[in-house]
Amino acid sequence: METQPLPYADRFKLECSSPIIWEGMIRFTVNVTFDGKPIYSGPYSVGTGHVKPQYITRAGAGFGSNRPDIAKHIIRHGLSGKWIGDGETIAKGIILEAARMQKLTPKLENVIHSLILDGTAYFDRLTFPQWCAEYGYSDDSIKAQDIFRICERTGQEIARHVTPAELDTLREWASQY
Q: Which residues pair with 29 in a beta bridge?
């Protein structure tokens, strides 16, 4: 099935910060507006697999002659595995440099898709226990409750700035993405 273009793409605007490494992911701070009104400001992460191997190899070469092994490990395994000495710190530096060289940034369609899915808790009026059961979280977890609240707020912000018909269109698009 072919992915449909993002509805109302010309009405969204995405701005993002330079990347950092956070919990093994490449994290950006993104700001999303719809018709100039803010609907989301916060973290958005992508996996290290989004960095193309040729950039990792080039970035690794820039870290010194003994770094090609680290670059090869990153290409094969990302940031997982056991590191010796400062290997993990160097690997994170290589990933960030490679992401900058590649000019890696989040794609508007991916961010909107994530936000629409996160907003489902609010759109579908899910209770916390229902949301936990739907997404595999423990309803006895404070961390899960914090995530649920963030998802609810995301849905509220989106619903405040789009019409019900626009929201239905975006949700239908997200279900096919």
A: 43
CA dihedral angle for residue 86, residue 88, residue 90, residue 93, rounded to 10 degrees:
-150
Is residue 138 a contact partner of residue 144, using CB atoms and an 8 Å limit? yes
Count of Cβ atoms closer than 10 Å to residue 68 Cβ: 13
Higher model confidence: residue 76 or residue 122?
122
- Predicted confidence (pLDDT) per residue in 130-143, tens digit: 999 999 999 999 99
Strand 20-22 and strand 12-16: the pairing is unpaired
> What is the reported pTM?
0.89
Q: Domain map of the chain by residue range?
A: 9-48+104-176, 52-102
On the CB side of 27, how many CA atoms lie within 13 Å of its CA? 9
Residue whose tokens read 């309803």 = 139
Burial of 150 (0-12, 13-18, 19+ CB in 10 A): middle
Q: Which two tokens stand for residue 162?
A: 């789009």
